[in-house]
Amino acid sequence: MREVILLTAALLACTAGMGWLALAMERHWTQVHEGEATAAQVLRMRALGTLGLAAGLSLCLAADHASMAVLVWVMALAASALAVALTLTWRPSWMRVLTCFAG
Amino acid sequence: MFQSFRHAATWVHTWFGLVLGFVLVVVFFFGSLSVFDREIDRWAIPESRFEPQPMPSFDKVLRPVFDTMQPMKESVDAMRGKVDGPMPERFDTVRSWSAYTTHRDPVLLLWASYEVPGAQDPHDRVWGNRTIDPRSGKVFPDDQLKIGSQFFYPLHYGLTLEWQDLGAWIVGFAGLVMLVALISGVVMHRKLFREYFTFRPTRNIQRSVLDLHNMTGVLALPFHFFFAFTGLLIFAGHYFPVTHTQLEPLHELHEKIEEQQTGLPQDRAGVPAPLASVDAMVAEARRRWTAKGMAGEVGLVSANHVGDVNGYVSVWRAGTDRIANVSDGIHFKASTGEVLYEEPPLTAVGSVGNFLIGLHLQHFRHWLLRWFYVLGGLMGTVCLATGLIFFVEKRKKQHAKAGGQSRRVVDALAVSTITGMLVATMSILVANRLLPEALPSGWPPRGDMERYVFWGGWALAMIHAFVRSAPVAMDRLNPAWHEQCWAVAIMAVAAMLLNWITTGDHLLRTIGAGYWPVAGVDLSLLVTAGLAVLSARRLGRKALAAMPVPRGGTAHA
Q1: What H or E segment, with its residue span, contains residue B304?
Q2: Does this complex have an ipTM over 0.90?
Q3: Distance from CA of A103 to the nearest CA of B (A)
């Protein structure tokens, strides 16, 4: 059970991280919001994105032996990036959950 | 020859990708299925639908089965011509008896190798194997095909072309080309980071196909790279067989030195000796693992030089909680049970090697990672498939103008490879449930019949793709695309229903009982059917949308 919670949290952290990194890009920001993001907002989203991915890695390391955790994390990055890309294609409005952290 | 490095990279990517892309689609798709090979085996062999079992007692369960084993006819036939003098009727000089199991195996695979008197190369052996129910020792029939581990898995690494190991060589070359294609693809891609999350499923097929190709390639780039690389690594000894060619003397010397260091004899002494209790040796191995703080199950047991005073027994720990397949081997003297040699901790290079090979073969317990591997493999399949489709789409217009037919061929091959492969996969599953348990005498073994249906289904799909390919020459969509998607959808549902009818294991029962191997295959079949219907409708609409263009219109478009 502990593993399930940790790995679910890791997946969420990676997805949020990838989402913020996507929103830090002008093209994707404008898919979700009107107008351009300010330089400060872009910076904040990059920072949040990096933190999200790092949190994902720590959660993976807490769940499994390090050699396995690294593999899980790398694959979680691919899966979450795919999820973000497909959300941006078909349901960009869902990404607003993340922009409220952008200030 | 080329204006720039990027042009050169594009040329390599396009043409090598086109030729080997067909092979790589097959390798990636059946690799993805092989992630769940044991589970597909359960679906295909209903008598084996029970919980995974630990390694059973060697003395009580395995020994009596090993005692009755003999090499397979195919293996003996392959030895003919490599022996001085007549081929014996029976083989009684056992080189090794082995049993390997993982946390996903209800049934146990045993294999035995025998020395061949008069063999020109004394290293040559003949092999036999047998599958048993480890709870009772009951033997499963040899003509049952484990569709996952004995068919999809060999397709993945060797295309089941066994002659001269041709398939393994083709796959190896394709793996190398995959690495080249990944690197040249990154060089070609002008906006790798800017388009990292970009997918535009617009009306323009060429645009959306290229987006999908880039997206599935780039997002799973580490997966694609490491799996192509570690796949080559696993077969390195096969692709560079120097130990038995140029470096043979060095190899022989190394064997001798290793024998001195480990005390594990390479050859028989010729002095008979009994085999002591292997169960006692297994108990001692487990005690030593526990003392090291790594209590675990037995993954691999093998008895070498059985019946000889030089005999020894090796017990390896299952890698359920590690990336490496097995580890911490302990070797015992077969006649007395005393410990001869305990594997020392691995060197750094050894550990990295075990990690890289283990991450590809994945015998560890981690269901999330397992599903991630399926996702990575399917993304690779989509990347390769869209690459092939893009090749056709990009050239269709030009060739419609020029009146060439070559794109028709490439398109029909793309249909055969992509949807045809799915049709073939569904055919073998349907055949597995439809063929009677006992076939009339004179028929090929049941497992062989299933293989024939697979290849027959694929051949039919190919014929269909070529017959229906005329619209491609006029810059339209081949109707075979959506027709084969419908076929896949119908056959996937049929396979699920046939499993219910023939075994009584419907989804409510398997999910209720938590028997995920079978429930998982059935659910995957339903998801496949759903996706196939969606694709069929979309492709059908596209084929129709392109229809009403007047003949003169296409030429000027």
Answers
A1: strand B298-304
A2: yes
A3: 23
